[in-house]
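Example (one chain per record):
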Amino acid sequence: MPTGYTSKLMAEEQSFPEFVLGCARAFGALIAMRDSPNGTPIPEKFYPSDYHAKKVVLARKELKRLKAMKHGERLKFGQSAKEAAIKHNEQWLKKDKAENDRLLAMAQNVIAWNPPTKDHQGLKEFMLQQLDISRNDLDYMHSQLEQAKERPALTYYITAVSDAAHAIEYHTKENAKEIEIANTRSEWVRLLRLSL
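Predicted structure:
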């Protein structure tokens, strides 16, 4: 029975280079092409994703914007971020409470249920266990909400500056990795083609 790599060879003539390049899709630089149709051409050169490069540009703009703020603007920014964090945590807590209420209601139904046989008792215990482990930790969400309320507004600004600086560093490193991977893949394919 032919595989995706041998089907063309088994159905018709196929040159050695065509067979090698077809099988190469399952290795190294071409692994991302393994599910592509066999006729999809193998590129001569690979290019890095621009995702991280774009993120660096955005983070630099954000850091520049934040650092250009006057003291009053920083406080206003921080207060707005604080209000958003409080609102987010309140919504998350409300969602978690509603989920817990649904879990509790179902647990009450399961507890009230009488399994038809002893063989079904394990099912009842399993259902209760699943409901129990699915419960949200409301203490954690309450503490997150309290921390958001107690945190000074200016701290939100400082965190935003720190986050933007970290994003620049992180995405710069990841972009360099993307470039290296693209170069390595391009060289792998170049050397493979030379060997044929």
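Caption: The chain is about 70% helix and 0% strand.
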